[in-house]
């Protein structure tokens, strides 16, 4: 029986994944790495340093920089990302998400956040959703980022629930792998061809309702 929902943030709750992509693209081009849709999709859900490493690898530059230089570039990307976030407010919440969260609360489901982003507390504040996600996995405390199951396993643990009692919601391939690895029910938001490992798929958040989930499970 399902008792809890573990949410990704960027690209599920808010359309901030666009800003992450924009900021990464800017850095990739500065480093002379060609930006592709594939690269963009592979970066989704992946931690800051892992993302930079994926970009460098895509450009065949994995050993071109020292750790210190990489820290510098990661910080530069984050500064650009924060700049893009500056004027963001509740209007960045994706369609249907407010209603879905309200409905979950009404039915006494527990909610937690499993975002890889160190900026997630700030983003939740700006969106006005911090009060719904008091339970959060702190990505700084993880040994392994997505696609490793650790973050979604912890998302269930902090709710006092077993993984089988939880649903994980993700827009990233790496995130779906993490949910599946943690033995939770996975819901993919986005292109079903890309998120083909998800147990349930909705093309966008407006379809994410308890009713549609029940239908999909029949
Ligand atoms: C994930 C995003 O939620 O967080 C990634 O999908 C991002 O694009 C990752 O790289 C880490 O975010 P941050 O804010 O800690 O750099
Ligand atoms: Mg995401």
TrEMBL record:
InterPro entries reported in the protein's UniProt record: B-phosphoglucomutase_hydrolase, Beta-PGM, HAD-like_sf, HAD-like_SPP, HAD-SF_hydro_IA, HAD_sf, PGP-like_dom2
SUPFAM superfamilies found in the cross-reference section: HAD-like
Active site per the UniProt annotation: 8, 10
Cofactor(s) of this protein: Mg(2+)
Entry's Gene Ontology molecular function annotations: beta-phosphoglucomutase activity; magnesium ion binding; sugar-phosphatase activity
Record-annotated site: Important for catalytic activity and assists the phosphoryl transfer reaction to Asp8 by balancing charge and orienting the reacting groups: 115, 146
Family label: Belongs to the HAD-like hydrolase superfamily. CbbY/CbbZ/Gph/YieH family.
Protein's name in the database: Beta-phosphoglucomutase
């Amino acid at each position: 029986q399902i008792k809890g929902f573990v949410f990704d943030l960027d690209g599920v709750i808010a359309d901030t994944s666009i800003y992450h992509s924009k900021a990464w693209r800017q850095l990739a081009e500065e480093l002379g790495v060609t930006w592709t849709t594939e690269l963009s999709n592979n970066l989704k859900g992946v931690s800051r340093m892992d993302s930079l490493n994926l970009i460098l690898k895509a450009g065949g530059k994995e050993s071109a920089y020292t750790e210190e230089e990489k820290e510098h570039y990661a910080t530069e990307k984050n500064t650009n990302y924060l700049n893009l976030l500056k004027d963001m407010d509740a209007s960045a919440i994706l369609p249907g998400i407010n209603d879905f969260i309200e409905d979950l609360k009404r039915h006494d489901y527990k909610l937690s956040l499993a975002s890889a982003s160190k900026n997630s507390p700030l983003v939740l504040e700006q969106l006005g959703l911090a009060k719904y996600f008091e339970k959060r996995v702190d990505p700084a405390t993880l040994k392994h980022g997505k696609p490793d199951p650790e973050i979604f396993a912890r998302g269930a643990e902090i709710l006092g629930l077993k993984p089988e009692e939880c649903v994980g919601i993700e827009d990233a391939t790496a995130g779906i792998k993490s949910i599946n690895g943690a033995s939770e029910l996975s819901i993919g938001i986005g292109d079903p061809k890309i998120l083909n490992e998800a147990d349930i798929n909705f093309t966008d958040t407006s379809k994410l309702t308890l009713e549609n989930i029940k239908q999909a499970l029949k």
